[in-house]
Amino acid sequence: MTQVGGIKEPVWVWGIPYTPLTYAETLETIRGLIEEGKPSYFITANTHYAMLTRDNPDLREINARAAFILADGAPVVWASRRGPSPLPERVAGADLVFTLCEIAAREGFRVFLAGAAPGVAEVAAGNLRQRYPGLIVDTACPPRFQDQSDEEYQDLKARIVAARPHLLFLAATQPQGERWLFKNVEDLGIPVIGVPVGSTVDIAAGRLGRAPLWMQKVGLEWFYRLVSEPRKLLTRYVRNGRFIAGTLLRRPDRPAPPPERTP
Fold it and tell me: Within its chain, how far is the Cα of 213 from the centroid?
């Protein structure tokens, strides 16, 4: 994992090296990355992403390259309490994107939204500009990352590079989005890339609502999302539940060995 400024030692939960940052510390870390100006990305990882990491060994190298990985899920925070160094709190991407856009409007940082369903990113960008006057935000709605032709692939990269954003929010299906940014982070040259933010773009566009604050605080936002999108999420949440049940039978995580690299 890339060490940036005061980045702390990771807390391993379900095979992922989460960074024990509070919400306020996350914002300061991102500000530091922008000032540093080197290409980097961070991942907001929930239970589903932990399960994907278990099933897709290539994600271990992607996780190791990230500037930091945030616990975007109450079950992750709860599971960390089984170990000696629990995570301080959940840091939700759905909150982070809005706060970062507010900071960007105030400080002149350029933002780029890439992905989501056709037309959604544009509506989200318009709503964000109204909410945060002065926000500079561009968008692109490419085909699904796994379905892109070579021409579409290069066109998306060219549009992002031409916009010279300080912050790129990538709305893509896991783990295709993480694989795409890992492959392209150096070519894009963006100080901060955040992934995944698919539902957040839908929220910004007004297509989805957030759970009531009390549900967020007690860790039931997943239930609100399930009721809101049962066809999309039921199968996933059943698999996630089985994954969590399986982890309860194991000892707390220890650091995984480094991923093998092809010579």
Answer: 21
